[in-house]
Amino acid sequence: MAEDKDKDADVKVTIRVKKPSPKAANPPASPCILAIEATFVQAAGGMGGGNYEFGLMEFIRATRDAYDEGIMVPALNLDLSMCQQYTAGRPLQPDEIELRTVWLSLIYLTFERVGYTSKTDTFPGQSVAADLRQKFYTFTYDIVNAKKQGYDLATLKLEEVLQSSEERTPMEQAVLSQAMRICYLTIQAAEEV
Q1: By the 8 A CB rule, do 161 and 142 touch?
Q2: What is the DSSP secondary structure assignment for residue 70, as one 8-state letter?
Q3: What is the pLDDT of residues 1-40, one digit of tens each?
Q4: First and final CA of the chain: distance in angstroms?
Q5: Rounded Cα distance, 78 and 66, in Å
Q6: What angle do CA 77, 68, 189 make, to 5 degrees?
Q7: From the DSSP assignment, how many helices (H) and strands (E) are in the chain?
Q8: Angle at which helices 94-113 and 52-68 pack, to 10 degrees?
Q9: SS3 labels along 127-192
């Protein structure tokens, strides 16, 4: 009788389907995006160290590949935000994402200034956000001109590039010095090709 009771009992089964996270639903990142993500973390993590310039140049070369593919800065930032590779061991913090955007914008503006063209005959430099374009457009022009006049990175002085008596905080000086290095190395990366 107990056997008959078991046969007639309703069996309740609960199945839990784990919904993939939005990032897991994205297609895998391209090699170009993965390279930018990894080299940014390397360069930003090495600031002030011996490998900083090497890491920065690798970041610039990876960004040049995106530029060559005609990837616009907003699309590049979107692809990077969906990248599931966390070289830093965690997602980037908002200030790190902002720094990366500034670096990408400086590189794109410098490529535009030196007349470097993408392999897709598009103009990715024009995709730099208006606020960053306004902030760095003259700056990149001055760096490109200084390079044309024979200055190398060691002899190029920030004060000469800025040609301004405006007072700057040490943090602003550091950011502009870093921007000058990025622009100068970007010119070298454009000349490599």
Answers
A1: yes
A2: T
A3: 555 555 556 666 555 554 445 545 567 789 999 999 999 9
A4: 86
A5: 13
A6: 95
A7: 8, 0
A8: 70
A9: HCCHHHHHHHHHHHHHHHHHHHCCCCCCCCCHHHHHCCCCCCCHHHHHHHHHHHHHHHHHHHHHHH
